[in-house]
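Moderator note: this is an archived Q&A kept for reference. The question asked for a predicted structure of one protein chain; the sequence and the answer are reproduced below.
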Amino acid sequence: MDVRLKVFCAVAETKSFSKASRIIHLSQPAISLQIQALEELFETKLFDRSEGTVELTYSGKTFYREAKHILQHYASLEKQIGKITGMIRGDVTLGSSISLGDHVLPRLIIDFKKKHPKVKINMLVGNTKRIEDLLSAGLIDIGLVAGESSRTNMKTEPIVHDELILIVPRTHPLARKKVVSILEVAQEPFILREEGSGTRRRIDEYFARHGVSTRTMHIALILGSTESIKEAVEAGIGISIVSKWAVKKEVEDGRLRMLTPKEGRILRDLFIMLPNKIQHSHVIEDFILFVKKYPYERIMPEE
């Protein structure tokens, strides 16, 4: 029932079976079956699907309100039982931006699991906008992202600093330099992250501050992950800017070179993102505290 309630809330909040499908990685037929099962169980129609729109019926609105209460009450129950037993157990569903999810959080999760082996952690990786969507729909408990949220139902708090650095192939003419001007970079074929990415947003801001628009640059590719960008740069398709966390191995192996912009380092904060006014379970509260206090310097790339 818990899964059905979360699926129902996702459809109710996105007002779309297709959007809910993309957010929670379930096929539209699977989502339709979950909703159909609820409607048969309660013998009432929950959604009005007329004229290409998806709206809650009167029964659906009542069901949505109570479903949110049930999910929050269940979290409160888990929390109270955990305090009584002294045992941290349960599930944490985490949404992470790509840089954190691929290069930082695996170590953090391993360390948390050593401390609390009975906790099951599920991690979904995507760009900042997708993590916001997942969190808004109640399909993840925590977001860890490369940017603050502008949504009023979200709160963000910085947890660690990050630096974005310019990467070029080892055979590129710029590879002989350690410092390079953004004006030089703007003349090269460039590889960007997709819209909605926190990294893309920060790069656009940095270039704009120095009088360069990415819209006037020679954009060779727009890619949806840091790993694909690194491969494209190494293949000589263009140069790019990525998180310093992401290229430690390639730089150590000599496959890529890191350069610092002459105009100044591209720094940013990485944030924990949480929904407002949500009662978290005992295990989720413990994980949030662990994330906030984690010694990230242990896995920080060397200068």
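Archived answer notes: The mean pLDDT is 87.
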